[in-house]
Amino acid sequence: MKNILLLACALMVASISFGQSKSAVKVTPVTILKGQLAMVHYEYNAWGNATVSLGVAPVISGPILGSLAFPAEDGAGGIAIDPEIRWYGKDDGAMNGFFFGLYSSNRISNWTSDWSEDIWTDLTDEGLDPADDSYEVSATKSIFGMQLGTHKPLGDHFSVDFYSGLGLSLANTNAVGNNTGKSYDIPSGGINLRLNIALGYQF
Fold first, then answer.
1. How far apart are CA 116 and CA 176, in angstroms?
2. What is the pLDDT of residues 40-99, one digit of tens each?
3. Would you say 113 and 73 are in contact if contact means Cβ atoms under 8 Å apart?
4. Which of 56, 64, 85, 163 matches a 20 to 30 Å C-alpha distance to 133?
5. H helix intervals, 90-199
6. Coarse DSSP helix, strand, coil percentages of the chain, rounded to the nearest 5 percent
7. pLDDT tens string 124-151
């Protein structure tokens, strides 16, 4: 986390030091559908028609798979971090028109669950009732993929981003019983589709 914050600060300093470079702050509101508050991206025109960006969003609910097995009682905590690199098609600059890019989406979340469904046979075989336990749950998910999209300026400063992509995901949910100390893992992974919109301010 410390290294990520240092990188974000370095990008901001660079944008101030080199006045000819473009920067943008973007908000992606639909990440609420993934259990995150609106993600905020900082995009920087690093060289030519290429940009680098970093997005951060707080997590407020657990992922679907882990939440079904261990539903959160009072929401979840954590953070989502999305770095990107884009190459824009126009020769006259970045953050304008069609782009191709690489992205990574990373999520760390945790919550407490009072799980009560009798599906863990090893507990019942030992004469233990799963309903008598609560669980500390942590989940991680990482996606790596490619994306295509278009960045449309609206006047001198405002803009809108539409983009979609395809990536490979790897995730794991771990739950540890507070009473029994039993630990359970729910691994998952596969193909991840990406479809999003962002509203931005360029400077």
1. 14
2. 999 999 988 999 999 999 998 877 766 777 888 778 899 999 999 999 997 767 898 999
3. yes
4. 64
5. 121-125
6. 20, 55, 25
7. 666 566 666 788 999 999 999 999 999 9
Is the pLDDT reported for residue 17 higher than 50?
no
> Which secondary-structure segment (H or E) carries 148?
strand 135-154
Which residues in 7-134 belong to E strands, given as ranges? 23-28, 39-47, 50-58, 77-88, 97-113
Q: How far is CA 33 from the centre of its chain?
A: 12
Torsion of CA 151, 155, 158, 164, to 10 degrees: -20
Place of tokens 């990520």: 4
Q: Can you give the C-alpha Rg of the chain in angstroms?
A: 20
Q: Which amino acid is at 38?
A: A
Neighbours of 103 (CB within 10 A): 20
Q: Within a 10 A sphere around the Cβ of 7, how many other Cβ atoms?
A: 14
Mean pLDDT of the chain: 82
User: Could you give the 3-state DSSP secondary structure of residue 65?
Assistant: helix
Backbone conformation region of residue 8, classed left if phi is above 0, alpha if psi is from -120 to 50, else beta: alpha
CB-based contacts of 14: which residues, under 8 Å, 6+ apart? 21, 44
Q: Which helix (H) or strand (E) holds 49?
A: none
